[in-house]
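Q: I'm writing a short explainer about Sulfite oxidase for a general audience and would like to include a description of its predicted shape. Could you first generate the structure from this sequence?
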Amino acid sequence: MKNKPFLTTRKLQPENQESPIHFLSTWLTPAKYFYRRNHFPYPSLTDRHLWLQICGNVPQPRFFHLNDILSLPEKSIILPVECAGNKRAYFDPKVHGEQWEDGAISQGKWTGVPLSHLLELTGFYNQTKEVVFQGADFGRKPDKEDLIPFKRSLPLEKALHPDTIIAYLYNDKPLDYTHGYPFRLIVPNWYGMASVKWLYKIELINDSFNGPFQTEDYVYYPHKHNDHKSFPVTTLQVNSTIQQPLPFSILNTGVHEIKGIAWTGKGVITEVEISLDNGDTWQKAVLERLNEPYAWTKWSFLWHVEKKGEYSIYARAKDSQGRIQPMNAFWNRKGYGYNAVSKVNVKIE
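A: Of course. Here's the predicted structure. Afterward I'll give you a sentence or two in plain language.
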């Protein structure tokens, strides 16, 4: 019987499961291996959730049924969705929150209608500043008594980007219930909190949205005890993951393939380098790309090792905007955006 990987459970109520990223070599993550990130219990969907409402600063408020949206010109893009807390477990000092390791990221083919097309049909007033997206999931935050829905906003310019889409297919199949059926917002280059699941209401506003998932969570707080110099979490950091070998593997002498993935929220990955001497010297890995502007880059490096002992493998990615993974991540008290140089320790016997 062929062995298969499983999701790694971080929490069951609400469900938070990590993708087995180290064992996935395909460009498109199968839906069953897509990581699961939830703030609240899964919503109870009814027929009304097959309708998508657009309201607020629009001259023609409308409800679009799923069949209406399916009849519109579609667009497909391949991109990763990464939780802002991916790799949180590696922060030093430790921070509170789901202790994600490397698997709070997955990549697939998303198909839907550009949000800009829907907003062409409703129109919008010139004073519009932001677009607010509301999912069907709701619950209580630990420090709140009232029930609240998951709501996030985008600046109008980002909402109108031609690749910001209302997705209804994942890998050419209807969205899985656990990942946002029937509608999920997909926002390229931003962390996953922006890609609201179970989307059923879109509201255009002429000021700044200040819901708890906008101005309290998903904010970088550089200081442990105050909010000084805080700023919002938006664009993906340049980052990479070593998929193989696994941490603390015991290997034989000979040739080993070091491989992984790299991604960025600005430009494209231009280089991945490997160090086997604790960062003193670096050697270039071989890159493999898809002809897709947002997709992650695969990389590999053949390691010829004859001397037994313990080794640290470092990997760092660079992007076309000149960003490079740092040796130490930017610490923040909620643990977002970890992107320090990837590191795996192995032993050669």
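A: For your explainer, you could say: The helical segments are 66-70, 115-122, 156-159, 212-215.
Q: Perfect, that's easy to follow.
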